[in-house]
Write a structure and sequence with these properties.
Elements: H1 27-46, H2 49-80, E1 85-90, H3 93-113, H4 115-121, E2 124-125, E3 128-129, E4 134-139, H5 145-150, E5 156-160, E6 175-182, H6 186-212, E7 222-229, H7 242-262, H8 264-269, H9 272-276, H10 282-314, H11 318-322, H12 329-354, H13 360-380, H14 390-393, H15 398-409, H16 414-439, H17 442-446, H18 453-456, H19 468-490, H20 497-522, H21 527-531, H22 538-550, H23 552-565, H24 572-585, H25 590-618, H26 623-639, H27 650-667, H28 671-689, H29 691-696, H30 709-727
Parallel strand pairs: 1-4, 1-5, 6-7
Antiparallel strand pairs: 2-3, 5-6
Helix pairs in contact: 1-10, 2-7, 2-10, 3-6, 7-10, 7-12, 7-13, 7-15, 10-12, 12-15, 12-16, 16-19, 19-20, 19-25, 20-25, 22-28, 22-30, 23-27, 25-26, 25-28, 26-27, 27-28
Length: about 750
C-alpha cells in the first residue's frame, strides 16, 4: 500500500504501518492501547532491581554523605576563622575609638547572654559559635571608601552617619554607621556579620540600662546600614551552585537504564518483534516507551529533591546552603518543574541514542560519552561569577542548571527564565522528533544495523507536506536563534535606529523564512503544498485587507484587559524606554518603518506559523485544534521579547493568531494571512507614527483608554463583512489537504 493510499478519506494520515487492525480509525481505542502499553513498560521497569537502586537506594546513601561533607567543610571554615584578621577601615581615630568601645561592649553582652541569645545573633553550626577574629584598623579618606572596599584593601569600611539633633522631649537618636562591604566575598560578609551582631548587642545592652534608669530617654545608642559594593576580585564559589548539578546528574542517571532496557535490551532479547505485531502504530510504541522512561526520570528527580530537602533541614544546613530564606516549598516546586522539563528532554535524547544500539553493552558504550558530555556544561556552570545571560538561557542543560541555581539563590530574571523554559520545551519536541525518526526506521524494527546517516538521510520521493517532527525541529532551532540575535541587536545601542531596523529585518527573514525553507528543501517537500503558496481568490485578498484594518481595536481592548487582570511585567523604566523608542521612530521615514516592522515580519512570520507549521499540524489533527495551537504558539513567541518579558502581548497576539489561522484554513492559502498581518502591523505603526498629528485633528486616543463606541462599532461591521466574504469564497484551487 502506498503512502497516499494509507491516508484516510478525510486527508489525515493513518497512525502507522505496523500490524493492521480494524479499530485504528478509532483514536480513543488507539490512545487506550498506547496507555496500557506505557503502563506495562513502566511496571516492568519499576520491578527491576537496578531501577530500585537508582531510584531509592542511591538518594538514601548519597545525601547523608553529602551532608556530612558540607558540614565538615563549614566547620573547618569556622575553625579557621580564629586565625582570620579583619581589616576594617574608618575615617578618623575618633570613629575607631567609638567603634572599639561599642564592639567590646557588644561582645561582652553576647557572652553574658549565653548560647540561647548567641544563636539568634551569631552564626552557629551544631552549637559552635562563630569565633572572634583579630581586628586591624585602617584609616581611609571618605572619598576612597568604595575604591578600598572594591580593591580588597579593607574587608569592611565603616563611616559615621550625619548626626541628628535630639528631640525636645528627650528622645535621642542612635549612633548610626554606614557599613560598606564587598558583595559575594565571604571574608567581607563575615566581617559585616561580626560588626552588625556586636553593634546590635551593644544597643540592646544600653537600652536595657536606660530603661532601668527613671527619666532617661530610651533610644538605641547604635545602628547601622548596609551598602553592598561590587568588586572585580576573584569570584566566590557557592555551595548552592553544586546542588542543581547533582540533581540534574541524578535525574539523568535514573533515566539511563530504562532507556537502554526498553530499546537495545528489547532488541537483544528478541521481544521487540512481538511489540511490532501489536495493533499499535510505530509512533505509539515510541510514545509508550518515552512515557515510561520519562516517568522513571521524574520519579528519580522527585526522590532526590525530597531527600536533599529532608537532609538539609535535619542536619541544619538549610540556611548555610540556601541563605536566610532556606529551601522553601515554592522553591522546591519550581526546581522540581525544571527537573521535570529537563527529564522530558533527556529522556527523548536517550531513546534516540539507545535505539541505534543492537545490544545492552553497545548502548552503554554510547551512553558513557553522553554522560561525559553532560559533565562539561555542568562543571562550567560551577564557575564562580558565571552570569545567566541570553546565550546561556537557550543552551541545553546549562540553562536548567543556572536557572535552578538562581532559584535556590532567590535571584531570577523573568525574561531569561522564560527563555530557558520555552527553549527547553522546544528542545523536548525536537528530541522526540529525532527519536521518532530513528525508531521508525526498518533497521530498528527488524534488527539490522542502524547508523546516524539514517537520521540525516533525505526522503527518496517528493513529499506534499512536511512531517510534524520536521516542523518541530525547525521551531526548536528558530526560537533560540531569534532570541539570541534579537537580544544582541537590542544591546547594540551604538548602532543607529535605522541600521538596527535594517538588521532586524534581515534577522527576521533568515529565521522565519531561511530555517523553514531549509527544512522544506531537506525533506523534499513541495513549497506549494507544504507552505500553502497557493494563489487565492481575489475576494479572499480583499477580505484579508479589511480584517487587517479592523482587527486592531479588538487587540487594543485585549491589551487593556491585561491591565485589569494584572497581566503586565513592564515597570516605569521600561515604559519610559518604549516611549523614547516611539519618539525616535517619528524621525524615520514611514516607508522604512512599514518595510522593516510591518511587511517583512508579516510575510516571514506567516511563512512559518501559517505556512510550514500550520500545514504539518493540520495533517495530523482537526482544523480548530490546528488553529488554536498555532495561535497559542504565535502568542508565546511574542511574549519573549528581546530585552523584556512581555506577558501583556500574549492575548492580543493570540487573538490575531486565531484570526490568521481561520483565514488560512478558510482560504487554503498563506498569502491572505501575509497580507492581513502586514496591513494590521502597518496600520498600527502609522497610527503611532502620526499620533501627534492625529491628536491635533481630534482623533488621538490615550494608550490606557477604551476606544470610542463608534470606532468599535465600525470595526465590528467591517469584521462581519470580511467574515461573510471569506465564508462565501471557495477554497483556492489545488490547495493542499490542510
Amino acid at each position: 500500500m502506498t503512502d497516499d493510499q494509507s491516508q484516510s478519506s478525510s486527508g489525515h494520515p493513518r497512525p502507522g504501518n505496523g500490524g493492521a487492525a480494524p479499530g485504528w480509525n478509532n483514536r480513543r481505542e488507539v490512545a487506550s492501547r498506547i496507555t496500557r502499553l506505557a503502563l506495562k513498560e513502566l511496571r516492568e521497569t519499576l520491578r527491576d532491581r537496578r531501577t530500585i537502586v537508582t531510584l531509592v537506594v542511591m538518594p538514601l546513601v548519597l545525601y547523608p554523605i553529602l551532608a556530612l561533607v558540607f558540614q565538615r567543610f563549614l566547620l573547618t571554615s569556622l575553625s579557621n576563622q580564629a586565625a582570620i584578621e579583619y581589616v576594617i577601615g574608618v575615617d578618623s581615630p575618633d570613629s575607631m575609638r567609638r567603634l572599639e568601645r561599642q564592639l567590646e561592649q557588644g561582645d561582652r553582652r553576647l557572652h553574658e547572654a549565653g548560647r540561647e541569645d548567641v544563636s539568634h545573633d551569631a552564626q552557629q553550626i551544631h552549637g559552635q559559635r562563630e569565633p572572634s577574629p583579630k581586628i586591624i584598623w585602617a584609616e581611609i579618606p571618605d572619598d576612597e571608601v568604595e575604591r578600598c572596599v572594591s580593591n580588597a584593601d579593607v574587608h569592611l569600611a565603616i563611616l559615621p552617619m550625619q548626626e541628628r539633633p535630639n528631640h525636645a522631649d528627650g528622645l535621642g537618636h542612635p549612633s548610626s554607621w554606614d557599613l560598606y562591604y564587598r558583595a559575594g566575598s565571604p571574608a567581607s560578609e563575615a566581617a559585616l556579620r561580626y560588626v552588625e551582631t556586636r553593634l546590635r548587642a551593644y544597643s540592646e545592652s544600653k537600652l536595657d540600662a536606660q530603661l532601668k534608669t527613671l527619666g532617661v530617654a530610651a533610644a538605641l545608642p547604635a545602628s547601622s546600614q548596609r551598602h553592598a559594593i561590587d568588586y572585580s576580585g576573584a569570584p566566590v564559589f557557592s555551595l548552592a551552585a553544586l546542588i542543581p548539578l547533582i540533581l540534574v546528574l541524578m535525574t539523568v542517571t535514573g533515566a539511563v537504564y530504562p532507556a537502554i532496557d526498553l530499546t537495545a535490551g528489547e532488541r537483544e532479547r528478541g521481544t521487540l518483534e512481538m511489540l511490532i505485531a501489536a495493533p499499535v502504530p510505530r509512533i505509539g510504541l515510541l510514545l509508550a516507551k518515552y512515557v515510561a522512561v520519562f516517568a522513571v526520570a521524574l520519579l528519580t528527580a522527585l526522590v532526590n529533591l525530597t531527600g536533599m530537602a529532608i537532609t538539609s533541614h535535619s542536619t541544619g544546613l538549610n540556611v548555610s546552603l540556601f541563605g536566610d530564606a532556606g529551601l522553601s516549598l515554592p522553591v522546591v516546586i519550581k526546581v522540581l518543574l525544571l527537573l521535570g522539563l529537563f527529564a522530558a528532554f533527556f529522556s527523548a535524547v536517550l531513546l534516540a541514542i539507545t535505539s541505534c544500539a543492537r545490544s545492552f553493552k553497545e548502548a552503554q558504550a554510547y551512553i558513557v560519552p553522553l554522560m561525559l558530555l553532560c559533565l562539561v556544561p555542568g562543571v562550567i556552570c560551577l564557575m564562580p561569577g558565571l552570569e545567566f545571560t541570553g546565550v546561556l538561557a537557550v543552551t541545553p542543560l546549562v540553562n536548567i542548571v543556572l536557572l535552578a541555581r538562581n532559584l535556590l539563590e532567590g535571584n531570577v530574571d523573568p525574561l531569561l527564565a522564560a527563555a530557558a523554559v520555552i527553549s527547553t520545551a522546544l528542545y523536548v519536541l525536537a528530541a522526540i522528533a529525532v527519536a521518532a525518526r530513528i525508531f521508525g526506521t526498518d533497521a530498528i524494527l527488524y534488527g539490522s544495523e542502524v547508523t546516524w546517516s539514517d537520521v540525516f538521510r533525505r526522503p527518496g520521493a517528493t513529499q506534499p507536506v512536511a512531517s510534524l517532527s520536521a516542523a518541530a525541529l525547525a521551531l526548536a532551532i528558530m526560537f533560540p536563534t531569534y532570541f539570541v540575535l534579537s537580544a544582541t541587536l537590542a544591546q547594540s545601542v551604538e548602532v543607529s535606529l535605522q541600521a538596527r531596523l535594517f538588521v532586524a529585518a534581515i534577522v527576521t527573514m533568515l529565521v522565519f523564512c531561511g530555517i523553514p525553507a531549509a527544512v522544506v528543501l531537506f525533506n523534499r517537500v513541495r513549497f506549494r503544498s507544504g507552505i500553502g503558496l497557493v494563489w487565492p481568490r481575489m475576494t479572499a485578498l480583499v477580505a484579508a485587507v479589511v480584517l487587517g484594518f479592523v482587527l486592531w481595536p479588538a487587540a487594543h481592548e485585549l491589551f487593556l484587559l491585561n491591565e485589569r487582570l494584572g497581566i503586565t511585567a513592564l515597570d516605569v523604566d521600561q515604559i519610559a524606554q518604549v516611549q523614547t523608542l516611539l519618539e525616535k521612530l517619528q524621525s524615520i521615514s514611514p516607508v522604512w518603518i512599514l518595510v522593516s516592522l510591518a511587511i517583512v515580519p508579516g510575510v516571514c512570520e506567516e511563512f512559518f506559523f501559517r505556512g510550514l507549521f500550520f500545514t504539518s499540524l493540520r495533517a495530523v489533527t482537526t482544523p480548530w485544534r490546528t488553529i488554536i495551537a498555532t495561535a497559542v504558539l504565535f502568542g508565546l513567541f511574542h511574549v519573549v521579547a528581546a530585552t523584556v518579558l512581555a506577558p501583556e502581548r500574549f492575548l492580543p497576539s493570540a487573538f490575531l493568531g486565531l484570526a490568521l489561522g481561520w483565514v488560512r484554513y478558510r482560504t487554503g492559502s498563506v498569502f491572505p494571512c501575509m497580507l492581513l498581518h502586514a496591513v494590521h502591523n502597518g496600520f498600527v505603526l502609522l497610527v503611532v507614527h502620526w499620533r501627534d498629528a492625529l491628536a491635533e485633528s481630534g482623533f488621538g486616543v490615550e494608550d490606557a483608554s477604551h476606544l470610542p463606541a463608534t470606532w468599535l462599532a465600525v470595526a465590528a461591521v467591517g469584521a462581519a463583512v470580511a467574515v461573510v466574504m471569506l465564508a462565501l469564497t471557495n477554497r483556492a484551487p489545488s490547495s493542499p489537504a490542510s
